[in-house]
Amino acid sequence: MKMTVDFEECLKDSPRFRAALEEVEGDVAELELKLDKLVKLCIAMIDTGKAFCVANKQFMNGIRDLAQYSSNDAVVETSLTKFSDSLQEMINFHTIPFHYRLLQDTEYSFLHYTILFDQTQRSIKAQLQNFVKEDLRKFKDAKKQFEKVSEEKENALVKNAQVQRNKQHEVEEATNILTATRKCFRHIALDYVLQINVLQSKRRSEILKSMLSFMYAHLAFFHQGYDLFSELGPYMKDLGAQLDRLVVDAAKEKREMEQKHSTIQQKDFSSDDSKLEYNVDAANGIVMEGYLFKRASNAFKTWNRRWFSIQNNQLVYQKKFKDNPTVVVEDLRLCTVKHCEDIERRFCFEVVSPTKSCMLQADSEKLRQAWIKAVQTSIATAYREKGDESEKLDKKSSPSTGSLDSGNESKDKLLKGESALQRVQCIPGNASCCDCGLADPRWASINLGITLCIECSGIHRSLGVHFSKVRSLTLDTWEPELLKLMCELGNDVINRVYEANVEKMGIKKPQPGQRQEKEAYIRAKYVERKFVDKYSISSSPPEQEKKIASKSCEEKRLSISKLGPSEQVRASPQSSVKSNDSGIQQSSDDGRESLPSTVSANSLYEPEAERQDSSVFLDSKHLNPGLQLYRASYEKNLPKMAEALAHGADVNWANSEENKATPLIQAVLGGSLVTCEFLLQNGANVNQRDVQGRGPLHHATVLGHTGQVCLFLKRGANQHATDEEGKDPLSIAVEAANADIVTLLRLARMNEEMRESEGLYGQPGDETYQDIFRDFSQMASNNPEKLNRFQQDSQKF
């Protein structure tokens, strides 16, 4: 390295030496100023960075608080938590002391683990400060000594020059002083020049070393950040795609809400005020709620507007939303409700209990009638629930049977809050959409028995109800027989039929989000039925449709069919009746009776020996789809029924060899409630009759199938239709002394007459009627042993 000041020039003490010294001294003074400024700026930067980290931590805590607040939204909560953790890690890279990070992995170098602020402190502040305080201080000390000895040398030279020649003693003294001074000057000057050259060399290395260390600290910091966000990259990419879908869904929801807003805004609420004032929410236990005026019991009899509700068998009201409800009536079973026309105010009614009465006023006559009806219904429901509780206590005290255990198991499931969604998704294949495979489907096609995602459900709706009837698994109310139907089929069963040739044809199922591909695939699958195996129906046993019944058996069947229902039951052995009854009443439909594949509409009423002779035998590989549906309906084989419908079977196909009996009549004879529901959901005519004029309701009444009678009445069966003997279902039930069926038929007839008299065409009718039929449906599906009373009593006698 080139020396800043030459040592030879130092010994000469030439003007070049003095000029070089002056230049170096000025440069060092300026260097000191620059370094002092840089150290101060570094200290300020570190302090500002620490304040930034404190503010950043507070910001991270704010993100975490927002994530906890969004706990009901899994996407937002997960994303905010993950982002705040990553940003917190970046803050740690700023501030965690070096020795803590160094303990994590000893394989990395010092610079890799020195965090930014800590390394900045070491490289800039500490290192440069040390250079200024140590090396520059030594330079200043050497400079002072040099200036002092230089002055002494000048003085010695001046004194030596002024001494007179004749004064030998002074001459000698001045010469000695000059010699000593020069020697000292040379020694100190050489040290000073050495200090200058060393300082100039060291300042380069110290400055570059500190800056290089500082830059390495930045490199380590940003490298750590790059690694951290590289790991976060795939998640951010997935979230971005999900966010795009959310934006599309949000825009769609906005359009739907705007459309609904516009539709509601255009409605005329003047004639529909009752719908705005109350709603029915059985899930929350609230029968009815809305504003009413209440007359105070004080001397002034003031009227105050309060929010009333009927819930938990009580009438309560609130002044404000946050107030605790005030109970007006503790137990509605002890109350009565009546109109009040003897006061000046309009639309008043009174709720009377044994201890007090409450005068209330509605806003309109329509609302008054609604409240009165709601109170009356609640009173009836409270009595019925009390009776059910007593019945449960009686059951606990009596020995249980197998069928009772199954009923209790079903009740336990209901008590545990098992929803329709949970029950249906437990069926194999139902945990993902039947058509696109998207997980956790919330919609279903009830006539197909499959689960669907929301996008596929919209496509199914566009096909029309004759192809697919869509219902929500979470928003809609599910009748027990319909829920059991969903549990009997499922995505795996239906896809084995409707996607039998998908792999052979090389067709791939659409993926979630492919709307156009889904529409084409679903239409080809269910409307055109392109993927159905046309020859799968040949897997049925090789039989040929052929009647071999003997003439004597035919005559006996005709003679028995002319008997009344009670005589028909007595004409068959009790063992046969018992077998039929047990099969009829199985709610789960998993029991299979060892009876012939197809049975005529009258064969169940025949003696067992003759019934075998009247069977239909099939010999051909190519079975008629309608006949397959006919057979499977009796056998309670829902997968075979779905296969027959997929092959184009007419759901109302009539067997000309079997008195023109339909698959729905065969389902009645087979004793399966779910099979009947499946046929009805797929368009079976509930009023189609055989050659004897008997429809499904007639046959269910003759056989004493109470659950099926209830189902057919709910589905619009004509109970006034008569058979060839002029008997309607009610007369048959009365003759057979079946109290449950008589009750259902009479109640349905009364409800029908009441609706006709009040002009309520198309309305469900009285709530008491609906409640009773709902109870019978629940018993038929979950507790069929309760409906076994008639058959058991018949066997006793």
From TrEMBL:
What does the entry's free-text domain comment contain? PH domain binds phospholipids including phosphatidic acid, phosphatidylinositol 3-phosphate, phosphatidylinositol 3,5-bisphosphate (PIP2) and phosphatidylinositol 3,4,5-trisphosphate (PIP3). May mediate protein binding to PIP2 or PIP3 containing membranes. The BAR domain mediates homodimerization, it can neither bind membrane nor impart curvature, but instead requires the neighboring PH domain to achieve these functions.
Could you tell me what this protein is called? Arf-GAP with coiled-coil, ANK repeat and PH domain-containing protein
Write down the Pfam families for this protein, in alphabetical order: Ank_2, ArfGap, BAR_3, PH
Q: How does it sit in the membrane?
A: Peripheral membrane protein
Q: Where in the cell is it found?
A: Cell membrane; Endosome membrane
Species this protein is from: Physeter macrocephalus (Sperm whale)
Q: Does the keyword Cell membrane apply?
A: yes
GO cellular component terms given for this protein: endosome membrane; plasma membrane
